[in-house]
Amino acid sequence: LPPPPKDAPVGRIDDGTFSAYAGSQRFDQLPVSQKTKDGLKDAKFTKMTEIQRASLPHSLCGRDILGAAKTGSGKTLAFIIPVLEKLYRARWGPEDGVGSIIISPTRELAAQLFDVLKSVGKHHNFSAGLLIGGRKDIDTEKEHVNDLNILVCTPGRLLQHMDETPNFDCSQLQVLVLDEADRILDVGFKKALNAIVSQLPKHRQTFLFSATQTKSVQDLARLSLKDPEYLSVHEES
Ligand code: ADP
Ligand code: MG
């Protein structure tokens, strides 16, 4: 682990080992694996954005996150990094199956974040799949879905697998991400999300990111998060 930055503020007592990383400005100051650091470096990510600075010291020590920050503020890396680290620290391997599910409101957004996952995670050995419906044949997907470590999905397609795929197994799930939660709810996926969350194991880490904090986002947060760290970032400094 890198030494904590000299000007790091002292964290709360229950922050544990990683409290000292609260003042980090750059990704290479964080307690993340060399594989993740190399992926970030290759993609030319150096300095953290505000939502990343605020959330990563907490998410990397195992906490649930309820994060609100406007579009374009860098929320994707704020959850992709701790997803990779959680599985890496658990020594997750091909035979361990689905370890993380990332839910995104639309096919386009899911495909974009899948690209970021592939890029930043390229030095890791995890398998990942994009389950978004459309042109892709679900029958082929059904045969492979249990072999994937990280699923990036739209709510409809994930629910379809939960309902129809024989032996679909997410009983070992470590991390759930609800990305752009306000938009997921806007496009009418509230029921689907409730159904999905109710079928997932309760012992897990959950990140909920959203551009806005609406009443329905708070309802979803109550249903899906445990003692979350509330982080709201309004303006980039
Ligand atoms: P959001 O989900 O909050 O709308 P994204 O995660 O899609 O934002 O990021 C928006 C843009 O900012 C993307 O082009 C991304 O590559 C870029 N970006 C994210 N984090 C950083 C960073 N730490 N340094 C430089 N660019 C970044
Ligand atoms: Mg986003």
UniProtKB/TrEMBL annotation:
Coiled-coil residue spans: none
Domain DEAD-box RNA helicase Q positions: 25-53
Residue stretches making up the Helicase ATP-binding domain: 56-231
Motif (Q motif): 25-53
Notes on the domains: The Q motif is unique to and characteristic of the DEAD box family of RNA helicases and controls ATP binding and hydrolysis.
Family: Belongs to the DEAD box helicase family.
Functional note: RNA helicase.
Name of the molecule in the record: ATP-dependent RNA helicase
Full protein segment contained here: 42 to 278 of 779
